[in-house]
TrEMBL record:
Keywords carried by this UniProt record: Membrane, Transmembrane, Transmembrane helix
Species this protein is from: Exophiala viscosa
Region named Disordered: 1-45
Residues in Tag1-like fourth Ig-like domain copies: 547-657
Residue ranges of domain Tag1 C-terminal in the record: 431-538
Transmembrane portions of the chain: 54-73
One Gene Ontology term, aspect cellular component: fungal-type vacuole membrane
Listed name of the protein: Pre-rRNA processing protein
Domain Tag1-like fifth Ig-like: 668-770
Length: 782
């Protein structure tokens, strides 16, 4: 068979050879031939992987060829043989697995190509010598393959049957060899496999040593020892095949209602880039996770079906994994940490990152040769599971029945939140496992318009329950008094303003959730599940327009010489679905830039809907306060400015709120009507007051159409009770032009205006205020 007739690219393309343009000037060079020795030392010029899948088997064939004629001739002829030999494997397969190893089959063509020999005298002498010898035959040969880079350990031993080769130039010899191969040092196989998986196998040197019995015709040439060193580097060294998970299904197994564990069924595929063919028997593996002490813990077991390996084809295999009850050592937190060996695996998986487990040979089937089990059992290798992003694992995160508890200044420094937390978990479609959750905990960041407002501390375990809804899992947990830490005062102020006077606030919660799950694998914690959700807090002012609460039942509860302390009932409506507990809150009150007092509430509970709140206020009357109080009693439209400060909600920071509100007309009209008695020159007044007081003096003047009707100057105190009061008869000095007007109105009513300076006393507090009234009804009697 001539090399010129060989196709340029087929399964017969040399496995160990390569093109070398530097040999183009050699005579008799065929189109595609390449010597074994040059092909292994020269760099690859094309992006084709020339990895000899069965290194040992290929070397054995080279050794046989060299042994058959190389050692039967002078050293020059040996050099010729080493450069000229060309091996073209067309098929490499494993015929069967034996108790001691494997029976491999090599099919291909071997020839000598003189054109590959660079030295002309060696080339000419070699062609002449091989023409004379014509044919060489080897006896049964044993070849040992060693790895110099790995302490020269024995990789394996092959026994090759007798081979007869025609050694004339370019004479093709078809070979069909069955060789028995036994594994050598198991530790060596494990080390090279680990370096291969870890991507550290950048180059590989092997050395084959063969003792070859030779004969040429009827002449026995004795036993000769052949040593051949080969080196693989660059593209000749393969990369780890990429494993594609095509299908994954996880379900419980065992008796209905009494699961024994979880079964994972997967279909995986990988490309076989090598001209290698065999059937891989069913194999069992233990799946391991690192423990707290860098050892391994059994996580589960896997088993493969028979896998048919075909040359240069995509290989598909079915894998079944079983995970039974997890040991406590796998789910318990390692000493000095908060995570267990299982946490990192689940955390990476849920985050969509690649996860690493370790596999080691397990208990093999009785039909599997023992030597395979020994190699697998002594080999532990990392195995990467592809990441699976679960961006929508948490479909919804919400809160219901929310209750805020502002901090008690005597015991705590943070507001607290109670609510029913609802988490809707979207279970992966490939997972058909019953899950139950009995408690959850979380750390959450609370944002407003993209800015961090605070942190919600749910680190304490909260009782919960889970309900299956279609393919989703609804987890509900009752959270009690979870602390809320304000991180940004400015953002907090914006939120409060929007709730009080704006259109409400939409808060965004970004949390990591831990769940204590109850499954067929036992009880364990799944940590750091990402969750996001929005909470909308309705405005207290309904549609965004502030409505002044109704103030009723005002009374003076304390006095001093300079101040009053008042208590009132405030009726307000909470339009939100949230409630709140306020142990204490305090604001200052201002008039025209001057602080005139304080207002505060304590031990208040606000619920959705109508609320009745008891509030207190102190009033420090200076000149500004006196003026405002006079206007207020006279029925003017007055307002108060309310400001927060550092102690508004102790010990929280100042929310920075300021609001000017109209003052409710609590008095109505302080002076309701007057009765003037003409003959006695006296007058009585119908007065209204929300609280009891004493009028200590009155200096008043009444006008009718800007004409003075009369004056009162009274310095004797009289009491005013809560509600309507009739004053004593106070003496009136009639104006000089008032008699006619009064006489004409006897038995009727005049509309009078009045101005007065009034002295009042409430408890220890005493003050002089002015009063103005217009269009007052004055009855005129004899």
């Amino acid at each position: 068979m001539s090399r010129e007739n060989s196709p340029q690219s087929s399964e017969r393309t040399p496995l160990l050879s390569n093109h070398d343009e530097s040999d183009a000037n050699h005579v008799d060079q065929p189109n595609e031939a390449a010597s074994v020795s040059e092909s292994l030392d020269a760099p690859q010029t094309k992006q084709r992987k020339r990895w000899p899948t069965a290194i040992a088997l290929s070397i054995l064939c080279v050794a046989v060829v060299l042994g058959c004629f190389g050692l039967a001739l002078p050293s020059v002829i040996q050099e010729y043989a080493k450069e000229a030999v060309v091996l073209e494997p067309s098929n490499i397969s494993i015929d069967s697995f034996t108790e001691l190893g494997i029976r491999a089959r090599l099919q291909g063509d071997v020839c000598l190509d003189a054109g590959r020999v660079k030295n002309k005298p060696t080339r000419d002498l070699g062609r002449f010598g091989t023409w004379i010898a014509r044919e060489v035959q080897s006896g049964e040969t044993e070849v040992n393959v060693y790895l110099p880079q790995y302490d020269n350990i024995l990789l394996g031993t092959a026994t090759i049957p007798p081979v007869k080769i025609n050694i004339r130039n370019q004479h093709s010899n078809h070979m069909d060899i069955l060789a028995d191969i036994e594994p050598g040092d198991i530790d060596g196989a494990r080390r090279i496999a680990k370096d291969f998986i870890d991507g550290k196998l950048k180059e590989l040197a092997v050395e084959a040593v063969a003792t070859v019995p030779l004969r040429s015709g009827l002449i026995k040439l004795g036993k000769q020892t052949v040593t051949q060193s080969l080196k693989f580097a660059g593209d000749s060294v393969p990369s780890v095949p990429k494993i594609d998970f095509q299908r994954l299904r996880i379900a419980e197994y065992g008796m209905p209602g009494h699961p024994e564990g979880v079964k994972a069924q997967a279909v995986v595929s990988a490309m076989n880039d090598f001209p290698l063919k065999f059937d891989l028997p069913p194999l069992s593996f233990d799946v391991l996770l690192p423990d707290c002490d860098d050892d391994y813990l059994l996580f589960g077991t896997t088993k493969t079906e028979v896998v048919h390996i075909l040359p240069k084809q995509n290989i598909t295999a079915s894998v079944v994994g079983l995970v039974q009850q997890l040991p406590n050592s796998l789910t318990s937190a390692c000493p000095g940490t908060k995570t267990s060996p299982l946490d990192s695996l689940i955390g990476d998986y849920l985050a969509g990152r690649n996860t690493t487990v370790y596999i080691r040979g397990g208990e093999q089937d009785s039909n599997t040769p023992e030597w395979i089990g020994n190699i697998l059992r002594d080999t532990t290798l990392p195995f990467t599971l592809p990441g699976h992003p679960f961006d929508n694992l948490i479909k919804n995160f919400s809160m219901a029945n929310v209750h805020f508890s502002l901090p008690d200044p005597t015991s705590d420094s943070r507001p607290r939140l109670s609510a029913v937390v609802q988490v809707l978990v979207g279970l992966p479609t490939e997972m058909n496992v019953n899950l139950d959750v009995d408690k959850v905990r979380a750390d959450g960041d609370v944002f407003y318009e993209g800015e961090l407002m605070g942190k919600l501390d749910l680190r304490e375990w909260q009782a919960s329950n889970a309900t299956k809804i279609d393919n989703d899992l609804l987890i509900q947990s009752i959270v009690k008094d979870a602390p809320l830490e304000i991180a940004d005062n400015g953002v907090f102020s914006k939120v409060v303003k929007q709730i009080l006077w704006g259109k409400g606030a939409r808060l965004s919660v970004h949390a990591t959730v831990d769940v204590n799950s109850l499954t067929a694998l036992g009880e364990f914690v799944v940590r750091n599940i990402p969750a996001t959700g929005d909470i909308f807090i309705k405005p207290l002012s309904g549609a965004g327009d502030f409505k002044m609460p109704e103030v009723t039942g005002m009374e003076v509860v304390d006095t001093s010489e300079t101040s009053l302390t008042l208590q009132a009932t405030v009726n307000m409506t909470n339009p939100t679905d949230y409630s709140a507990s306020i142990p204490f809150s305090n604001v200052s009150t201002w008039v025209n830039g001057t602080r005139v007092g304080w207002a505060w509430i304590s031990d208040m509970n606000i619920v959705p809907g109508p609320n009745e709140i008891v509030a207190r206020a102190s009033w420090e009357v200076g000149s500004i306060g006196r003026e405002w109080l006079s206007q207020f009693i006279s029925g003017y439209n007055t307002s108060l400015t309310i400001k927060t400060h550092a102690g508004t909600i102790p010990p929280l920071p100042d929310p920075g709120l300021e609001m000017t509100v109209p003052t409710p007309h609590m008095f109505g009209k302080f002076l309701r009507e007057t009765t003037m008695h003409l003959f006695s020159s006296t007058a009585t007044f119908l007065l209204f007051s929300p609280f009891a007081m004493y009028v200590t003096s009155i200096a008043a003047t009444a006008y009718y159409n800007d004409t003075e009707i009369g004056t009162i100057d009274w310095d004797y105190p009289f009491a005013i009770e809560v509600g309507e009061n009739v004053s004593p008869r106070l003496p009136v000095a009639w104006g000089s032009n008032a008699i006619g007007t009064i006489r004409d109105a006897i038995g009727g009513t005049l509309k009078l205006d009045a101005k007065a300076d009034v002295g009042v006393r409430i408890g220890h507090w005493q003050e002089n205020i002015w009063y103005e009234g217009y269009g007052l009804g004055a009855k005129i009697r004899l």
